[in-house]
């Protein structure tokens, strides 16, 4: 079915702020398929008028990390898989690391992908030793977004399912956010409990986002949906000062 023309989609850049297409794409690559994005995914995204995708290449769960319990290894694996796919599907997409590359890619009629992770466990590295090394390495490989928590607790902070502990950001979580701000990465507060969220917006020196939470006043049956107070705190940031963009 052809895409229905839309003035909105045709005149602005549409960004899918959180997408898990790599869960399906990476296993196909393991069976030897090449150029999977161009063949199977690009046509569907173009039907939807999507220009930019936040592609999740790792997480706090094995399903996003090549189904490996070693989340750091799995993230490196999926990230590299997307970089290879960017070369093989260069006719339809490109992994982008800054605003200029995004603009040029969209202007060329291709889909711009930004690499992100859903949860900070892949950044933890050696047990009982907090270091920014892994974050810095991922950044050099093109990672530009980190969602601090996914489900449950990690060494950066607590997610909504552990809200009863009232635990906010850990000292390591604070270090990660400060380093992300220095590098110009996108800090994502989706899934965070209130304490961790307000810690994040208080110490961050650039605006933060919530990529995929609903509005609690509209739908109060899903714990991940957030309050008007959190929405207002997110809106207080001046997006024009967001140095990644």
Number of helices: 9
Helix content: 25-40%
Radius of gyration: 18 Å
Q: What is the averaged pLDDT score?
A: 90
Which percent band covers the strand fraction? 5-15%
Q: Based on DSSP secondary structure assignment, what is the total number of beta strands?
A: 6
The CATH homology group name:
Metal-dependent hydrolases
List segments where confidence is low: pLDDT < 50 over at least 5 consecutive residues.
238-245
CATH fold title: TIM Barrel
The number of distinct structural domains comes to 1
Please identify the top-level CATH class.
Alpha Beta
CATH architecture label name: Alpha-Beta Barrel
Shape: globular
Largest β sheet strand count, sense and barrel closure: 6 strands, parallel
The H-and-E topology, N to C, reads as HEHHEHEHEHEHEHH
- Taking the alpha carbons of the first and last residues, their distance comes to 34 Å
Coarse structural class? alpha/beta
State the main characteristics.
9 helices; 6-stranded parallel sheet; 245 residues; 13% strand; TIM Barrel; alpha/beta
Summarize the structure in words.
The protein is α/β, with parallel strands linked by helices. The chain has one domain: TIM Barrel, CATH 3.20.20. Helix content is 38%, strand content 13%. It is built from nine helices and six strands, in the order H-E-H-H-E-H-E-H-E-H-E-H-E-H-H. Strands 1, 2, 3, 4, 5 and 6 form a six-stranded parallel beta sheet that branches. Strand 5, helix 7 and strand 6 form a beta-alpha-beta unit.
């Amino acid at each position: 079915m052809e895409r229905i023309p839309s003035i909105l989609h045709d005149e602005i850049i549409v960004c899918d702020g959180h997408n898990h297409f790599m869960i399906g794409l990476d296993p196909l690559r393991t069976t030897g398929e090449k150029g999977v994005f161009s063949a199977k995914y690009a046509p569907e995204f173009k039907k939807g008028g999507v220009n930019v995708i936040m592609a999740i290449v790792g997480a706090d769960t094995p399903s996003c990390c090549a189904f490996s319990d070693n989340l750091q290894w799995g993230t490196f694996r999926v990230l590299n898989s997307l970089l290879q796919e960017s070369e093989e599907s260069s006719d339809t997409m490109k992994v982008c690391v800054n605003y200029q590359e995004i603009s040029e890619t969209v202007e060329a009629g291709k889909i711009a992908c930004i690499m992100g992770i859903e949860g900070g466990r892949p950044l933890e590295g050696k047990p009982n030793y907090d270091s920014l090394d892994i974050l810095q390495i991922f950044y050099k490989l093109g990672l530009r977004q980190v969602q601090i928590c996914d489900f449950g607790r990690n060494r950066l902070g607590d997610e909504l399912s552990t809200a009863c502990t009232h635990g906010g950001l850990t000292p390591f979580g604070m270090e990660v956010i400060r380093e992300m701000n220095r590098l110009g990465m996108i800090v994502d507060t989706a899934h965070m409990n209130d304490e961790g969220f307000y810690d994040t917006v208080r110490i961050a020196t650039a605006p933060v986002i919530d990529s995929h939470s609903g509005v609690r006043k509209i739908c109060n049956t899903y714990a991940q949906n957030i309050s008007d107070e959190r929405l207002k705190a997110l809106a207080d940031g001046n997006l024009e000062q967001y140095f990644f963009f």
